[in-house]
Each structure stands twice: as C-alpha cells, then as structure tokens.
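Entry 14. Two folds queued back to back today. First construct below, sequence then structure tokens.
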Amino acid sequence: MIPPIQDSSIPPCKKCHDRAPLELAFSMAFQPIVDVRTNTIFAYEALVRGLDGSGALQILSQVTEDNRYQFDQACRVQAVSLAARLGIKSHVSINFLPNAVYEPAACIRKTLEAANEHQFPTHQLIFDDYRE
C-alpha cells in the first residue's frame, strides 16, 4: 500500500479547484515501450483517446486555455486509475505539457493521491514533459 499524501500545507491549484467539472470525456490507450536489449516491456505510455477510440487530435482539439490545467490533471489521474484497473505491473509514462503544471506541488500531488487511491505504486510513474 502506498502511504497516503497528507500535506495540507499545499493549497489546491486555483486553475483546477472550484471550477465546473471538465466537460470532456476521454480514455487512455497504453502503448508498450520495449527494452530492445531484453525484448521485454519496460513501460507503457499513456495516450489520450476518445471514448469511441478516436485519436488524440479529436480530444486535444477541445482543449482550450481555460480548461488546459484541468485537462492535464484529469489525464494524469485517468492514466493512473486505468493502469491500476488494468493491472499494469510495469512503469507508466504520463505525458504532460510543462506549462500546464501551474502549481507543481499541488498539481503533481493530485496524481500521487490518485495512485494511492487506486493502489498504483508511485515508483512506477514516469512523468514525461511534452513540448508543443
């Protein structure tokens, strides 16, 4: 069991907190990252997809300046939740836009709380910044 994150000194991020729920339904696909030396799966990269299987562009075209921070956080939480439900035992690489992590301590904390809630080991998370 992952120890709970209990740091109440970090206030919630204002870009995500006290907002209407994100009106954007999506899921994740997990693409294997293979270690070619051992021919084994090292990790899975979490890739955003539509609920109907549509590609990332369909979802990303709905991201605006106003919902960017909420979307980025929702993607990280969704990736952790789904990886746990699927029973992924390897690392999970989660892409994020570096400028979308508005308040790093608060934003990353939400992802770690999701890992705790879904019993997904935090040492298996890889945060990969995606540059536009």
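Second construct, same run, same settings:
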Amino acid sequence: MAKNTICVWYDKDAEAAARFYAATFPDSTVDAVIRAPGDYPEGKQGDVLVVEFTVAGIPCIGLNGGPAIKHNEAFSFQIATDDQEETDRYWNAIVGNGGQESECGWCKDKWGVSWQITPRLLSEALSAGGGQAKRAFDAMMTMRKIDIAAIEAARRG
C-alpha cells in the first residue's frame, strides 16, 4: 500500500465502482478486495469491506462504510484529456453508466463520485491569462461537457 492513499467512502458498491474505473481509465486497476473478518454495523462477515484500487495512476481505497456519508463536489477526480474523442469517451462512460451531467466539465458517476473531465487545451487557455483566458472561461461557463473546438475558437477570439 502507498504511504498516501485516497480513501473514497461507498455505501456498499466499492468493488463495482473500482472495477468500472479500472475498465474505463488507463493505468487503473483493482489491486485487492478485502473482506470483513467479522460482522459490523452495516454488514456481515465475508462482505467486501475495502477495495484497494488505482485510478489513472492514483492509489485509492474504496471503503464500504454504509449509507451515512454521501459524496459531494468537495472531492472530485480530475482527468486531463488530450482531444475531443478522449473527452467524449470518459464523459459518456461516466454519464452513460447511470451518472449525471453537471456544468463546466463536471459530472458524477452512479455512485455519486464527482469527476472533472478537463481537456488540457482548456487548462492551457486558462493558464495563459489575459483576454484568451477570459474568452475561454466565458465559453466554458456555458458548457456541460467541454467542447474543445468551441474553447479553441473562443481562445483565438
């Protein structure tokens, strides 16, 4: 296990979520499934308690902690994309698998975990500052899934 690992709380579907992430994103794996050695308030001995997984190279733990804690946008995975095809693929995988769209490149998977599907071109435009950053920002604010061509056009003015 890595020294620093992100722990993501799930009601009961940590393994399903980890397997979805591993199938969707490169450099992602399900590394271990740990079962409860005894009964606990939200489950029984033998239930999946913890799943060790990697998402796009980042080590994570999925904890099946029960329904008490809900996800919100204060935590999200940000995935940098290189082109519209990659942006569409990740967005459609998350939203099309029971997730939901939000704004400015944000969406949630069916487990309620927030994702930012962020084209590198958008990050570059915002980092450039000045008028091109403002135009790219204004264009982004009208979008759900990021449209790279529209960001490029806005950036150029």
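Quick look at the second one. The radius of gyration is 18 Å. The mean pLDDT is 96.
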